[in-house]
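Hi P.,

Sorry for the delay on this. The queue was packed all week, but I finally got your sequence through. Input first:
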Amino acid sequence: MTAVAVLTASGAGVAAQDPQIKTSETLVYAVYDGQDTAMDAFKTMKSGQMSTGERIESYAIVSKDVKGKVTVRDQRKRDAGVGAVLGGVIGLVGGPLGVAAGATAGGSVGYLTGDAVGIPREKVESMKASLTPNSSALVVVLEDRWVQDVQRDMNQAHAREVIASQIGVK
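Then the structure:
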């Protein structure tokens, strides 16, 4: 199976408390070998959030078995913008079922590379190509200040590839 999890973390502070203040966010995508590795990485990150300060608010977990069957295992969205990005990534790696289960983001590649999100096409294509049967991916949308901590956690969980891109969802 393949799992895709999207997390959104926001720490304490003025920007997190005042919705009028826009914070810069980054999408971080990590691919792992193994059926449940992304889920395990998600659980480890969630349990360690007290020491780093980030707060996981939005995520999705999608499974893709060795035959290519896609199942959305769990999801929670913080807001419509993050939900659309979440749906776009699920649709990208999970196909039409992923989009239907995640969000109706339209053409995943076009949406993710467009002005609303702004991920470079080569990064989107790399995400799409890297998720193979019996592998898992963890996708995190978070405030920029947490990117290095999350990338470190993903690498410590033996990510095969980590892709990060600043996004514009607010």
